[in-house]
Amino acid sequence: MATLNLEEGSDWPLERRLEQLEQVYCFPAASPAAFPQHQHQDFLQQIQHLPLGLSACMLSVVGVRPGEVGESLLLSRLEQGSAPVTIHIPSSRLQHRVSWLVEEMDSIQAEQKAVNSVTEKEKWWEGRRSLDARLKAVLSAAPLLSPEELEHFSQGLTPGWDGECDVALKAAHLQKLPWECVPCLRPCSVTRMPSLHSLLGHCLQRESDPQCVLKRGVDAKQVFYVLNPDANLGDTEERLKGLFSNKHDWQGVCGVVPDSAQLQEAVATKDLYIYVGHGAGARHLDGQKLLKQDMRAASLLFGCSSAGLAVRGDLEGTGIILHYLMASCPLVLGALWDVTDRDIDRFTTALLESWLSAGSGAPLLDYMGPARQATHLKHLVGAAP
């Protein structure tokens, strides 16, 4: 996930891979006589399957009443070879509670839609800059650990650790917040997964298939792109078509709807799929089509709310990005909320030009920070991907 190294190994039989996946996603009924000892041992064994150098952080919110946003966070650090560490962060002691963070985030997104309809340019920019400042305040107010808690939380980490952090968000309310852009996490390589089991499934994929992108990395020549398929983002097409057309090894479509069969074949055989259009492109590649085959291509979805999850009631969030992960997509990049085309195009250009020109072994996550800085609104747009 972090590197583009080329490695070789022996292929696993499909039956063995499916057996391993069944074990990862198996949730046996708890026996009163064995609970929780048996589950505890299974959990500790699962942690040992995490790659060396990767820390999995599970973030959960705890409340008293059903349906309410809890005010306490549980942050657990899981790492191979180390005992799990869990820290309780009561946000009631901080300046802003968790519920305020969630409500303010919802308010910013609602007001952004109103500001986007303003026709007077000066007032449009004034409104968006104000929202950008409010989002910066949300990120700065995200619950932080005290120095003593941080020291305790970091105990057991590999000496000199500078590896990846994978965050599993265990509450529907937390997934809408851009945790990757919290000040203390900006210098780190941070990705998110919906659960520990999803992370373990990806780790198994990397181990069992030596030809997968997670193992071999992205071949910058094996790319398929879809640019402005609905033919109504003319400015975006004009800004980006030169970047795409100059890559003579790339295949794709520009300004037209992609052929469904061609697109399905591309995501199953290419190393990288780039989508630039409205949303996540579900009109052209929906969840049902995704789940009919294994995806090989890492996917960059540069569309509004392409990585957002819809939360209904007390249920967990749903969205097409989860279908990508269930279809074994090695990595999905998308926007958590709606963004403006010109600013997200700056991010897209900066990320693609820097990462894909860096050569084999270049970690995608290392280029996310500089690409965010290429936007005018560093938080309202830069924190969305």
Your description of this structure?
- This protein has 385 residues and is α/β, with parallel strands linked by helices.
- It contains 13 helices and ten strands.
- The model is unreliable at 1-11 and 155-161 (pLDDT under 50).
Short description:
The protein is α/β, with parallel strands linked by helices and 385 residues long.
Topology diagram in text:
Elements lengths: L13 H11 L12 H11 L6 E9 L9 E7 L6 E6 L7 H19 L4 H21 L5 H8 L9 E6 L19 E5 L2 H13 L4 H4 L6 E5 L6 H12 L5 E4 L5 H10 L2 E5 L10 H4 L7 E5 L17 H7 L5 E2 L7 H16 L11 H6 L12
Parallel strand pairs: 1-4, 4-5, 6-7, 6-8, 8-9, 9-10
Antiparallel strand pairs: 1-2, 2-3
What would the keywords be for this entry?
385 residues, alpha/beta, 5-stranded mixed sheet, 5-stranded parallel sheet, 13 helices, 10 strands, 37% helix, disordered N terminus
